[in-house]
Design goal:
About 0% of the residues lie in helices and about 40% in strands. By secondary structure, it is mainly beta. A hairpin with a 2-residue loop joins β6 and β7.
């Protein structure tokens, strides 16, 4: 009876670890990383290992990443099966390439204790950093003061080259009166529409 496995003095429960413990992965098409659950000994039956997924990155088809493989989820607890007589199973983390600047995001996978296995305390979790490929856009004014009759200019700056043309939407506000809707005595002529930054990458 395998349910007695580990209760006898000459038998020990398998110990589970996860690797790699940390890694960086860039956001982009077809970006993925495999996490490996390692069993230090073969088990006579399928072994179900539970784990949690945390971090500021969101899991799901419409979010930052998705988990692939023979993985099940129940109320926030995930599980994967290490087949009988095998010593490992794989969790594939596939990155979803969006078009939104979010900064780098974290995915942390933590193994949970189980009835039929123990956890290697030194290798119990894995942290992935998803490196955002969208640039951070900043807006700067070329000059603080402009005399009437002159042109003012704002400058949009990207902190790195974007992987695609970047469409920037903006609003204009303030006490100055724009030249639109037949306003009397307007103060300035606004630019129409969003700004399209076209990048020529080599």
């Amino acid at each position: 009876d395998w349910t007695n496995y580990g209760k006898r003095k000459n038998l020990s429960l398998p110990q589970i670890s996860i690797s790699p413990s940390s890694n960086n992965i860039s956001e982009g098409p077809n970006s993925s990383l495999e996490l490996k659950l390692n069993n230090n000994q073969k088990f006579p039956v399928d072994l179900t290992v539970d784990f949690t997924v945390e971090g500021n990155a969101a899991v799901g088809e419409e979010n930052n990443y998705k988990l692939e493989g023979d993985i099940k989820e129940n109320e926030g607890i995930y599980s994967v099966v290490i087949p009988a007589e095998q010593t490992s199973a794989t969790i594939k983390v596939s990155i979803i390439d969006d078009k939104i600047y979010e900064g780098d995001e974290i995915v942390k996978v933590t193994l949970l204790e189980g009835t039929n296995y123990t956890i290697d305390s030194n290798k119990s979790n894995a942290t992935l950093t998803i490196e955002d490929d969208e640039p951070l856009i900043t807006l700067n004014l070329e000059t603080d003061e402009i005399e009437e009759g002159n042109k003012g200019q704002f400058k949009l700056t990207l902190d790195k080259a974007a992987p695609r043309d970047t469409l920037v939407e903006y609003t204009i506000s303030g006490s100055a009166i724009p030249n639109k809707d037949n306003n009397n005595n307007p103060d300035y002529q606004p630019v129409k529409g969003p700004v399209l930054i076209i990048l020529f990458l080599k």
